[in-house]
Amino acid sequence: MAREPLVGRSVPRVEDERLLRGNGRYVDDIAPAGCLEAAFLRSPHAHARIKAIDVSLARLMPGVHAIFTGADLHGQVEPMVFQIAKIVPPPVRESTGAWSRVHPMAALPTERATWVGQPLAVVIADDRYRAEDALELIELELEPLPAVVDPLDALAPGAPLLEPEWESNLALHYRFSNGDVDAVFDSAAVVVEEQFRSHRHIASPIETRGVVAQPDPYDGRLLVWSSTQTPHQLRDFLAGALRRSPETLHVRAPDVGGGFGPKGAIYPEELVISYVASALNTPVKWIEDRSEHFLATTHGREQVHTIALAADADGRFLALRDQITHNCGAFNILGLVVPYNSLTHLVGMYAIPAVDVEMRAVVTNTGVTAPYRGAGRPEAVFAMERIVDRVARRLGIDPGELRERNAIPPSALPYETGMIYRDGTRQVYDSGDYPELLRQARRLVSDEDWEARAGAGREVGIGYAAYVEGTGVGPFESASAQVIAGARVRVAVGSASQGQGHRTTLGQIAADALGVPLEAIEVVGGDTNAIATGFGTLASRSLVVGGNAVAKACAELRAQVVEAAAGLGFEVGADDPLPLGPMAALTPFNPGRPAGAPAVLRAQAEYYPGPVTYAAGVHAAVVAVDPRTGEVEILRYAIAHDCGRAVNPQIADGQVIGGTMQGIGGALFEELVYDDEGQLRTASFMDYLLPTASEMPEFRTAHVDVVSPLNPLGVKGLGEGGAIGPMAALANAVEGALAGHGVVVRSCPLTPDRVRALVRATEPPVPTAQETT
Amino acid sequence: MSEQLPIRLTVNGAELSAEVEPRLLLSDFIRHRAGLTGTHVGCEHGVCGACTVLVDGEPQRSCLVFAVQADGAEVETVEGLAAPGAELHALQQAFHEEHGMQCGFCTSGFLMTSAALLREHPHPSDAQLLDAISGNLCRCTGYQNIIRAVRSAEAKLAAQAGDGTPAAAPAGDADGA
Amino acid sequence: MKPAQFAYHAPTRLEELLQLLADGAGEARVLAGGQSLVPMMNFRLATPETLVDLRRVQALRELSVRAADGALLVGAGVTQARLLREPAVQAGFPLLAAGVAHVGHPQIRSRGTVCGSLAHSDPTAELPALALAHDARMTIARAPRRREFPPGSTNRTQPWNSQSERRELAADDFLVSYYETAVEPGELLEQVAFPPLPDGAGWSFRELARRHGDFALAGAIAVVAPGRHARLVLFGVGDRARRIASVEELLLRAPAADAVPGDAAALLEQIRTQVPALVAAAVNPSGDVHASADYRRELAGTLAVTAIAEALERAR
Hints:
By secondary structure, chain A is an alpha+beta fold. Chain A is built from 23 helices and 28 strands. Chain A is globular, with a radius of gyration of 27 Å.
């Protein structure tokens, strides 16, 4: 092109001004005339038989329009069946014997409640205040049943069964085996085995979920506004569950206040509100409150790994064994998605000849789990990178050095792991420079005297976490591009933004592909009427799959425009900017339109990616630990990463730092805690602690970006990467700091109490008051 | 129907009168009665700070104030920072330039908290700055660019005021013990 | 998360406010800053029938230093932010200023009141502990009434003043237990008086919270004038903030400022070795999702040692 490409430049975001002026449109800002508001009655028990739900008194309250229970929905709304949970691509089955089963979820159950917070009834009232008043008058008769909370307990003989028709709580199983692991373990110089627990988190976007369903009295269509990451999937799901054609549904995700995975799931509330609005023929709004969010929005991360790593005396990894137990919560809604990611991201950037991994995913009486930024990767990386540090400590080798010794060299790429990826293709690391990522991360933490900075009384540790991340998974994404009035091009995409800045980055891609300025591009997403198909924004895929779809559609549109321009007598060379002005004049209403010129200039493209492309990163955390109080301070947090070609470096860094901060939250502060009865003890921001600006460490970043050969733009996904490393890096750093005490960090978050308990366990008992006075 | 009380207050300089239930939260009043949806609600228990507005010049969580308590008050919301069509406020401009926002949901609260901070302390110490914005949660940015944005706005406002004080001001009254 | 209905009053005169509280027969609650009450109402954990808002009562906004004894008088309507902005506080009450700066964030302090935090009596809150460390005195007011005591009153021996409307309590008598003070239904904590620290006393405020601005896992306040005055207040480690008498006795034996350096070192060593056990024996923390009881007990001892050492240092 004649001009500088926009891709690769930190173009300021085009979406900002509207949001900065307070003119954003989030779901709760949608206020159709006459809109009623909903509040859900939720199960107070983790497992209970529903004996009766008496709404007669509540129904009489002034301002209450209707109350629906499961009985009212029975026969009207199909049970929710999560088809994706059943999908096992044949190559995956052949490779691992994987199977998955799922029981249907009634949007409002009639027989049993299986987790605290499960919706049981919905009140529709003039406003939310009155709806909540009415909730207090519903008489709910439940017969508590034994509940199971811990995933290991769920597998024990005699455990309460979530689904009585199943013989156990096992919902999904696979086993991957490569090489003779037992033989290697018998003969290796060192074998280290540990059990590590990845604890339960919640993504907690600052905007909770919300739905507004609005029937159109003119044509009977139903407009559903939802704070979803996947409007097209929601449309098709609702069509099935409500037994209507998808064409009669219009789903819009307006501005969405953060997603991070949970808003990619489909929820009972979306179905119930859509049904209720149709049944009452009036707009209905439900905005999840924070309390509901903790109980009823999907959780993530809970896995137990019993992992063992064998190495020779020089620290070369020889064999890896891991038995993973994964907690699905009350329903296995997404099947292989998260559990299988844990397999294909466990080994990471190391060459290990023999690997044996078994997964047991179980259902329990807890909130449903689903992808949360990283989706099975942070869990696996926590176990793997912890065991690597245990081996390093056993052998007396610096953990950074040990990682470099085992990293796959660039010369070995593309590198085939021997595993099958979740999309059914062979897993191949396409590009990257893992030793250089390690060197850069080590360099970023080697320029200070940390002991001096920590000061007396505190101990310093440096911890690493290395990972690869398959990004840009299919099946497809779609985009269209059309010349519109005002010499502009409207680009519609199936993958909307929840803050990632797609209007800017996809706009940059479109502008380059078309050869027009960014100002001439308008990107629309999150609207099933703007483009007929789409997959959604999740799994670090939008830039790879959506971005290439945009590039493809825009290249096609450019060809159309060039041809049409030629018909009008404009010669447009390959490197020339596109003359949009004359093109926009080709409207059917223009009486001066040359005969034969096209009336519409529009291109549509689907991009079907091949195998995923591999982003990678190495995190290095420097911590100071006070062994007397257990306080952990991060002195520096360094990130070396590879996101392929960065379309907008400022936005890319924003994704990496933001993801890392979420990971730091999980490593040090955040934990969803259920008690033995399945009551959630952390259902507010007073008890579930998100990190604030005061907890932000000093960050350093380095780019080792290797352009992907797998897609025309050379990009890799980067939405999730930052969140993958922190649990492992910080646990390694804290254990390193306390190495003199001989502690082993087996779980996070590393609260002062937990860290102090590790140290105290290694100290002589404290004398009692009587002994000292 | 429950008791309704008359209130009169100014929001972004405009006088508003309304009859409200005593329990109506100021956040709901601003959003659903005054129609100013730039103020967002994230937790309704006073932790996330998304609903932060200025009440008589001080940053407050509008989810922890009943509208009746704001009777007679001057309330400022994000919509008041820059008039429609006018140039962005220095803070808004800085959040844009420094990429101090992603999804935008928490942004209004950060802007209002920062506006109050820079009015009271035109050159806040690091401790003052962190103390102020730690009352707001952001789940997207990791905060680094928000801090940069507030510092950038500090310099912009100082330049607008013709104040020659360098942006990197010495620490003021530090945060306690 | 929307509050239940309630009746609301915002009188302009104190007498009217007190009468409304008295008329509320225990179902009326004072609304000051609301930073603790409103979240509980939004969760519907608190559903008062009536709220009596004190924001219009000018008389409750007093913030001044009493000439007679130099005590800082803080009326029920004074916010924590206003206290921190007050030059007399920054100059003359550094411990108070340091401690209140740990209360929440500016968005909370701009509305939350000093007296409201005291009356809420959260065992992990800073202000009740600061009140103990300062030997603060609370003035409790109520509407004139017949001379009878409500059932369950814990202060039957307290004399009412000439109008039978006010009584004054020391902080230690004011604080009762978890979320409980000596304020009876129908009463108002009208004012708190913080006497200045004794001349020559050093002070220290130490707390450990999981994040900046959070309620403390445990906290320690030390005020020491060697040989003359000693306060060690711990919070977050029991049903309320408490002074630790055994440690205070130890500190009263501290050598004076002009003592030979060796004595000071010996004292510090004594503190380091003895205080944790004395503290552990004196506190009764409970565990929650943030920290176990054992951790809090031990942390209180650690923070106490640090605070005492810092206070001694400042006393020199």
